[in-house]
Design brief:
Order of helices and strands: HHHHHHHHHHHHHHH
CATH architecture of one domain: Alpha Horseshoe
Shape: flat
Strand content: under 5%
Distance between the termini: 93 Å
Radius of gyration: 30 Å
Number of strands: 0
Oligomer: single chain
């Protein structure tokens, strides 16, 4: 028998054996997985979870893998296994990023993690500023801004240099019924925040925004520019900066922040309205008409232009 033919026969025999072994192994894996899914369905998670966790990476069938990862997630949460919970969720988000059930499950998992962590924090350090901060944030979510402000002041009495608390206090003051006293008190809190954390873009933004609403264009532009430079994703700063520059008749400078804002928020008519004003003053008639048409297309003139 020719040597080449002999080698071909040996290779064919080996490949056939390997393929049969692979099919047998995959069949055994699927059988174990189906058994684990039944255990999970019966809430026998202590038995099911090790099998599910081990088997998921080996599965090629997308539907079966989805069922396995979902069962892993539910069992891990039931068992209080944080690592397995997060790992299964990350795998689901990677494999099925647009699946509605996966997105819903993501919210539930992180809510559960947050609730458990807050309970543990209250048990471990009941008198800590972290517990008080969580209490204040809960009050904020209920729009109880005055009560939240009281707690933030308590935190600052004990920890006057704690980052973010002056900012939160300022925000809670602005969220209460607007009065000159509240606005001024909020502005001072934002300034105090910057002495502690000079990189707080949100504090810079609110100082600038308060100045803009008061017609203090130079002060507004200085702080809004700083906010935009500190955080390029803070789109509100780009819009407010463009509006302040327009109000100060510095139209050529307003183009860049307003164009950036309309790219970030193309459905917001306010940005297009302001950009149309800018183009009109710069003699860019066609661009101005285009922005005006976009404003009309986006359901009429903006309602939040000051």
């Amino acid at each position: 028998m020719p040597r080449v033919l002999l080698l071909a026969l040996v290779c064919f025999a080996f490949c056939s054996f390997w393929m049969r072994a692979q099919v047998t192994q995959e069949s055994a894996t699927v059988s174990r997985v189906q058994h684990a899914l039944e255990l999970a369905h019966k809430r026998r998670c202590d038995e099911a979870l090790p099998i599910l966790t081990e088997s998921a990476p080996q599965l090629s069938d997308k539907d079966l893998k989805y069922r396995v990862l979902m069962a892993t997630e539910h069992c891990a949460m039931h068992q209080g296994d944080g690592r397995a919970t997060v790992n299964a969720l990350l795998a689901l988000r990677h494999e099925y990023p647009k699946d509605p059930e996966v997105l819903y499950l993501t919210t539930q998992v992180f809510l559960e993690i947050a609730e458990r962590a807050s309970r543990e924090l209250a048990d471990v350090a009941p008198n800590s500023y972290q517990v008080k901060e969580l209490q204040a944030e809960t009050l904020e979510s209920q729009n109880k801004w005055e009560e939240a402000a009281v707690i933030y002041r308590q935190i600052l009495e004990e920890n006057p240099k704690l980052p973010a608390i002056h900012f939160r206090l300022g925000r809670s003051l602005l969220s209460q019924p607007e009065t000159p006293a509240n606005v001024e008190a909020a502005r001072k809190e934002f300034e105090r925040e910057l002495t502690i954390d000079p990189a707080n873009a949100s504090a810079e933004f609110w100082i600038g925004e308060i100045a803009r609403r008061n017609g203090q264009w130079d002060t507004a532009i200085t702080h809004l520019k700083a906010a935009a430079e500190l955080d390029s994703k803070l789109s509100e700063a780009a819009l407010a900066l463009g509006m302040a520059l327009n109000s100060a008749e510095r139209f050529s400078e307003a183009v860049d922040p307003l164009e950036r804002y309309t790219k970030i928020a193309p459905r917001d008519s306010t940005g297009h309205y302001q950009l149309g004003i800018t183009y009109a003053h710069l003699g860019r008639k066609e661009d101005s008409l285009r922005e005006k048409a976009l404003v009309q297309q986006l359901s009429g003139p903006p309602t939040n232009v000051h």
